[in-house]
Amino acid sequence: MSVLGQLRAELGDLVDTSPEALENARADKSGHRSAEAPLAVVHAEAVEHVQAVMRIASATGTPVVTRGAGTGLAGAANAGGGEIALSVRRMTRILEVSPDDLLAVVEPGILNADLNAQLLTHGLWWAPDPASKAISTVGGNIATGAGGLLCAKYGVVRDAVLGLDVVLADGRLIRMGHRSVKGVTGLDLTSLMIGSEGTLGVIVGATLKLRRIVPGDVCTVAATFRTVRDAAVASSAVTAAGIQPAIMELMDPHSLAAAHALLALPAPTPGSAQLTIQTDGPAAAVEADAIAAVLTGSGGTVAVTHDREEGERLLAIRRAMHPAMETLGTALIEDVSVPRSQLAAMFDEIARVEREHGVVIPVVAHAGDGNLHPNFIFEGPEVPASIWEAADDLFRAAIRLGGTLTGEHGIGVLKRRWLADELGDDQWRLQRDIARVFDPQGILNPGKVFEA
Amino acid sequence: MSVLGQLRAELGDLVDTSPEALENARADKSGHRSAEAPLAVVHAEAVEHVQAVMRIASATGTPVVTRGAGTGLAGAANAGGGEIALSVRRMTRILEVSPDDLLAVVEPGILNADLNAQLLTHGLWWAPDPASKAISTVGGNIATGAGGLLCAKYGVVRDAVLGLDVVLADGRLIRMGHRSVKGVTGLDLTSLMIGSEGTLGVIVGATLKLRRIVPGDVCTVAATFRTVRDAAVASSAVTAAGIQPAIMELMDPHSLAAAHALLALPAPTPGSAQLTIQTDGPAAAVEADAIAAVLTGSGGTVAVTHDREEGERLLAIRRAMHPAMETLGTALIEDVSVPRSQLAAMFDEIARVEREHGVVIPVVAHAGDGNLHPNFIFEGPEVPASIWEAADDLFRAAIRLGGTLTGEHGIGVLKRRWLADELGDDQWRLQRDIARVFDPQGILNPGKVFEA
């Protein structure tokens, strides 16, 4: 029987070959799309469905691309010709919330925001906060090692997952990790799964480490600077002053101007850049005032508010970044990350790349943790070679500064050709060989991360 | 040429075959010792020395046991007949401290306490604080995934390492991880190395994530309870009240009595147990008072001090635990960890094991994170079979309660026979196969963790 026939015989209506479903499964939010549509989309609703798909896939040597909500930015979840798109988006149950143990056990398809809305009723939250949190799944956040705005203060996904249930390539289910705060039994496979982008197994359950809702106020500081370099130096001064903001976002002149235009606000002074900073917790007001003093001393024009709603209005400019980019053309959103002390140097490199390649690169940065999103803008659906050359130059600059290709979006298809540049050939081979232990047939998301 | 001859030809005086060195390399602090002395101890002073040892070892198929200060409690660093003991204890340099990036780059042999003494001059610290911190190395802390007293508030080793330099089995050097706060390039091999107990490679450098020294006071609360169960329930009440102490230690009646005897203090009321809790940071005093109220409400007799020295006097009873155990006989120090909500249930299980096996099991627990150290006391150097039977019963109880064999000491030789019970056979084989990718010849710490 054909692969499709076997899937249908075992999974019935969960197997979807409608043109719309197949078309959706070809792309994520990166703009990249696979060359051909996949064989089928399977909408798994339970662990057993995932196991059935993997048993059929391993018996027939059929590639499987696991998908959540398809909001990735590296093409890692794009399914192509001859592949099964395995969607876990319908697995949305919260199986347990334990306020005493500060943990929740969830299925992978629940949206980050939906989970946090439920946790709020217990006075709890799961800290990872990718900008996509309203539309991205917890499983996808884990599979990509997603970041967000709050990471410098509240950690990354790796800090917020205690254990995972994983279906292996051949359909077996294993449980990794712990429910306890501590646990060092054998190798830390939970961490290995985080950010593995569907190459090691299918995440079908997650034991999440929760936090209690932070008591106290949220205060917001917005400051404009004459140049983006001044803003970057000022953000470093905040860190150097020993204050830990919850959020510290930097918008360069291009992105600031585009966001103002989108929101119909008066145009900012040409060349000016903005820092938007939030503090939280019992010391929020004291910290906001201290930050305002540092920023003023660094040449900023500073506004402070202790009002949550007014703060949200100030942050709205930052949140308008992605829609603002869409008004300019197609955006290739990059994701380099550097040590915080190198933020100004990285902006210098971006200015150099703009000059030397004749491109404009609007940038927004999570300045608190050194993660920058340079946006390469172009016309049409395909990234032109000239843009990839500029991006290549920028990636190499980030690595030279002690940084990395990707702070929070992952490798997928879009950055696989630079992976060995950062890891070195020896480590690249070691990583690929580890992936082969999980997936000896090479059916898990082939062609992603480790080039086919 | 013999292995020893090759080592001497390349490494000269760094190769130590003195009876004392060979004898020392046979044991750690667990009390367990290898059956025979190793071939030699090599005192590596630089990365190149480690690489030379691994090249000779892989060319000749000679097993290598990496050692730091030998303070482990699972026998993981014990070197035996035909093996090379590779000591990195002399590699103690701090290569970089970056207050701006909150990171340090260090060699593996530096003692945790020596590093923290240096960091203090920068207003910084590395949070992992195993009880052995004065005598254990940073490399050993990482290789075992060491825990400590502060973990519930300040995290475990996994949360405090950004990157590692690792010499592979064949002598190649690779650099894993990042200097940036965020980074998701490929698989997270840094996390995989943490707690791998010398089975994957030799850690020769570490990029550590630092914290700023916590400002404010340290307050201490000591409370005695009628029974150990009352104390466990009270500690859960503190967590449930949403207060996060820096330290929350629980001593059962046996350990409390032994510590009092050692310190020549008046004997505690028979059967009584003690909680010793510290709060820190700007809200330390407020939190200490809130904790005191919770403990009083839970039936405790409570003393609070806002004085750091008086607090240290109260903690001295807890710190006397290990020497106190040594006065009772030989101690097999176990290390189970359970979800915090199961702490009282785990004490019930320990009481059952005591009754059913006719043994006395003094226990100290890191109550804030659910990690218990039951001490099995016996005469002579060898663990009697009857003690292992009682320990086996206790391990299985911890796993039943959703816990783990080992919260912070690791598997080594002493717990390898229970590893598959916790992981399941499928995961056990997967972990072992991953180790084989790093070490195809099986020369890295063979017979440890994954049974030979």
From TrEMBL, chains A, B:
Q: Which Gene3D superfamilies match?
A: 3.30.465.10, 3.30.70.2740, Vanillyl-alcohol Oxidase, Chain A, domain 4
Molecular function in Gene Ontology: FAD binding; oxidoreductase activity
Task: Report the cofactors.
Answer: FAD
Q: Where is the FAD-binding PCMH-type domain?
A: 34-213
UniProt KW keywords: FAD, Flavoprotein, Oxidoreductase
Superkingdom, natural source? Bacteria
The record ties this protein, via Pfam families, to: FAD-oxidase_C, FAD_binding_4
The record's PANTHER family line, in alphabetical order, gives: GLYCOLATE OXIDASE SUBUNIT GLCD
Q: In its UniProt entry, what is this protein called?
A: FAD-binding protein
Tell me which species this is from. Answer: Microbacterium stercoris
